[in-house]
Amino acid sequence: MRDAINRLGKVQPLFLVLGVGLEIAALLAYAQLMRVSMPRCDLGLFRVFRINLATKSLTNLVPGGSAAGSALGYRLLVTSGVEGTDAGFAIAATGVVSACVLNVILWVALLLSLPFHGINVLYGIAAVAGVVVIAFAAGLVFALMRGRVRAHRVLHAITSRLRFVDSERAAEVVEQVAARLRDVISDRELVERAAVWATLNWLLDAASLWVFVRAFGEASNVLGLLIAFGLANVLAVIPITPGGLGIIETVLVPTLVGFGVGRTVAALGVASYRLAQFWIPIPIGGVAYLTVRRDLRPVRLRDAAAQAYDTHEGQLDWAERYGRRRPADYT
């Protein structure tokens, strides 16, 4: 405790400011990754950034928050003018690309560190978990692109027994997603841009962690920090706590210590990093949600119905876009 108090007294504020700035840059890179995933959308970067902040806020509040955050993100994108299929695809594609890139970064760091640090059981567990994630993503893509007829049959067999699900609508969504997937895969430039923005997102986030550790007087080994960062985020995918709360801290601190960072510095650096990466976005995300809702302009119900008819928009998408507003919003 005495050492921690001494370290806090000697903290370098400029590094703390830089760490927060890197976190903001990482969130902007993630927002740009989502924009790349829906090229037919003309939403500005700042709007998508605020939607992602609102999503992150909810994800950090509830256990298994990824599902709730994705649902909120989908609703905000749709009400902002994005077609339902594009919004759903963008959220799913962003998550898959981000997860794959994170595992690639972890594997590269592990391979480069083997001559210097050897092999650890925890590394193997994380690497296997990464293989499972990427194999699942590849299998899903293959199923949608090559086995659409079979997927259509299976989905129809399941949804036809569920009263609250429109089986035809579900099949239509699968067809649209498959078509969208073919367009994306065939566009090499689009895939490369998505990979670049996902890589920037993770590397800026990891750089923020390095800067927060450096703020307390020690510089972490870059490879060691990338391994600790990758391990923590891969294991945080398990939906036990909101936003990996407790899991990321439990993995980061001892792993950084194992790579030569002092225990006190590791604890203070990780605590500061998580303050900027996890806790501060919660209230800011709430404000971002209110600003996104405020920006939605009232519409004429008749014009909205005519537009949906002309574009053949599905009933569920139209209801999501307009059906939950108060009567006073229709002027």
Secondary structure: number of strands: 0
Low-confidence regions: 325-331
Largest sheet: none
Helical segment count: 15
Radius of gyration: 22 Å
Shape: globular
How would you classify the helix and strand content by structural class?
A: mainly alpha
Order of helices and strands: HHHHHHHHHHHHHHH
What fraction, in percent, of the residue positions are helical?
over 70%
Domains counted in the coordinates: how many? 1
Proportion of residues in extended strands: under 5%
Q: What's the mean pLDDT score?
A: 78
Report the span from N to C terminus.
62 Å
SSE blueprint and pairings:
Elements: H1 2-9, H2 13-37, H3 45-59, H4 65-79, H5 84-117, H6 121-146, H7 148-159, H8 167-186, H9 188-214, H10 222-235, H11 247-258, H12 263-279, H13 281-295, H14 301-311, H15 315-322
Helix pairs in contact: 2-3, 2-5, 2-9, 2-12, 3-4, 3-13, 4-5, 5-6, 5-9, 5-10, 6-10, 7-8, 9-12, 10-11, 11-12
